[in-house]
UniProtKB/TrEMBL annotation:
<feature type="domain" description="D-isomer specific 2-hydroxyacid dehydrogenase catalytic">
    <location>
        <begin position="33"/>
        <end position="278"/>
    </location>
</feature>
<keyword id="KW-0560">Oxidoreductase</keyword>
<dbReference type="InterPro" id="IPR038251">
    <property type="entry name" value="PdxB_dimer_sf"/>
</dbReference>
<dbReference type="InterPro" id="IPR006140">
    <property type="entry name" value="D-isomer_DH_NAD-bd"/>
</dbReference>
<comment type="similarity">
    <text>Belongs to the D-isomer specific 2-hydroxyacid dehydrogenase family.</text>
</comment>
<feature type="domain" description="D-isomer specific 2-hydroxyacid dehydrogenase NAD-binding">
    <location>
        <begin position="116"/>
        <end position="258"/>
    </location>
</feature>
<keyword id="KW-0963">Cytoplasm</keyword>
<protein>
    <submittedName>
        <fullName>4-phosphoerythronate dehydrogenase</fullName>
    </submittedName>
</protein>
<keyword id="KW-0664">Pyridoxine biosynthesis</keyword>
<dbReference type="Pfam" id="PF02826">
    <property type="entry name" value="2-Hacid_dh_C"/>
</dbReference>
<dbReference type="Pfam" id="PF00389">
    <property type="entry name" value="2-Hacid_dh"/>
</dbReference>
<dbReference type="InterPro" id="IPR036291">
    <property type="entry name" value="NAD(P)-bd_dom_sf"/>
</dbReference>
<dbReference type="InterPro" id="IPR029752">
    <property type="entry name" value="D-isomer_DH_CS1"/>
</dbReference>
<dbReference type="InterPro" id="IPR006139">
    <property type="entry name" value="D-isomer_2_OHA_DH_cat_dom"/>
</dbReference>
<dbReference type="InterPro" id="IPR020921">
    <property type="entry name" value="Erythronate-4-P_DHase"/>
</dbReference>
<keyword id="KW-0520">NAD</keyword>
């Protein structure tokens, strides 16, 4: 019997085969060394710091994080204690991409600007940045990508500079958070970078809070021509600088839920279970019928504008904005707990990708086909 201790915010634990597997859950922030007694595998999310102190006296054989980001895990400590490690890169990529599209659709003006040919600047070409670049390109948008680490390895690609990105109409951040030279992403968007932006632009952060210097951002948002912002992540969360919420240029705000579609969380759970199978700690394959396809309501528009309609049909980002802003009405001492509760009790948000769009009569037009392909929607 393999005993797993898992963060209670993981989804689908009850869908995993129960043969040879015993799963206990705890709130991620409270997991301590004492909880690891007689535990073989630990499955965390981003809020559990996995340190030498946590694991040194355990009998853990595997630690998995059901997240793309790994900055909360001391991988050297795991290796030193002979504990295998895996993350869930890519599990939430489509969820984050749909968050970005939903933000642009909700705000309308940036969407129209991109449709009209202005550039989308993407920082980071990992799973999320790459997928966003691909979807945006398929929608016919002009995309620029900045990733100095990959640029150093592959000079063939037409990489943008940070300055090119800061000149784009819309800037979307999707790099991991780290302090490694020569291109640390910590405070990549600092006072100097913010000074290059103005109120004709939009800045989206669905990466990690500290990629933007939040103090410098607050100052910038108090200036004469501040950039329009969409923030899903916050420096120091669940403690956030709540004064940012009073800034009119903060157009949309949410509680680190960009990657919180149901599919994203389920993908991550599956990935960690599959690691146990690879290690031959469990045997039974996951047997779930995932072939049910949701039907969308027909759309009026064709091409790129239909994409906007479909995104909004499937995901109302305004709801997340409202829930987050309600936190600011709580007494200051209760907001951090409110932030965690909001994430813990997050609704079942289902992705647009993998759905079916019914359309009536004849062949679908090429723009409609292109749009459907971009979003991963089947035409029926
Ligand atoms: O790194 C990730 O995968 C995402 O930021 C993810 O949404 C974090 O969610 P959490 O682990 O905090 O529940």
């Amino acid at each position: 019997m393999i005993r797993v201790l898992a963060d209670q915010n993981m989804v689908g634990l009850d869908l995993l085969p129960s043969e040879g597997l015993e799963i206990r859950t705890l709130p991620g922030r409270s997991i301590s060394a004492a909880d690891l007694e007689e535990v073989d595998a630990l499955w965390v999310r981003s809020i559990t710091p996995v340190t030498q102190e946590l694991v040194q006296k355990s009998q853990l054989r595997f630690v998995g994080t059901a997240t793309a980001g790994v900055e909360h895990v001391d991988q050297d400590a795991l290796a030193a204690n002979g504990i295998r490690f895996a993350a869930a890169p890519g599990a939430n990529a489509n969820s984050v991409v749909e968050y970005v599209l939903a933000a642009l659709a909700e705000l309308q003006e940036p969407w129209e600007r991109l449709e009209a040919g202005d550039a989308l600047g993407i920082v980071g070409h990992g799973h999320v940045g790459r997928l966003l670049a691909q979807v945006a390109g398929d929608l016919g948008w002009h995309v620029k990508v900045y990733d100095p680490w990959l640029a150093a390895e592959d000079a063939e690609v037409d990489w943008a500079s940070l300055q090119d990105i800061l000149d784009c109409r819309v800037i979307s951040l999707h790099c991991s958070l780290h302090q490694q030279s020569p291109w640390p992403s910590y405070h990549l968007i600092d006072a100097e970078a913010l000074a290059a932006l103005d109120n004709r632009q939009w800045l989206i952060n669905a990466a990690r809070g500290a990629v933007i210097d939040n103090r410098a951002l607050l100052k910038h948002l108090q200036s004469e021509s501040p950039v329009n912002c969409v923030l899903d992540v916050w420096e120091g969360e669940p403690e956030c600088d709540w004064s940012l919420l009073a800034m009119p240029s903060l157009k949309l705000a949410s509680a680190h839920i960009a990657g919180y579609s149901w599919e994203a969380k389920w993908n991550a759970t599956k990935m960690l279970y599959e690691h146990l199978r690879k290690m031959q700690l469990v045997e039974t394959p996951i047997q779930i019928d995932e072939n049910t396809v949701a039907d969308l309501a027909p759309v009026q528009e064709t091409g790129c504008s239909a994409a906007r309609e479909l995104i909004q049909q499937r995901y109302t980002i305004a709801e997340d904005n409202l829930l987050f802003r309600n936190l600011a009405k709580l007494p200051a001492a209760e907001r951090a707990a409110g932030f965690d509760a909001l994430r813990r009790e997050y609704r079942k948000r289902e992705e647009l990708r993998g759905t079916r769009l019914p359309f009536v009569g004849g062949d679908a037009s090429p723009p409609l086909r292109r749009m459907a392909r971009a979003l991963g929607v089947a035409l029926a």
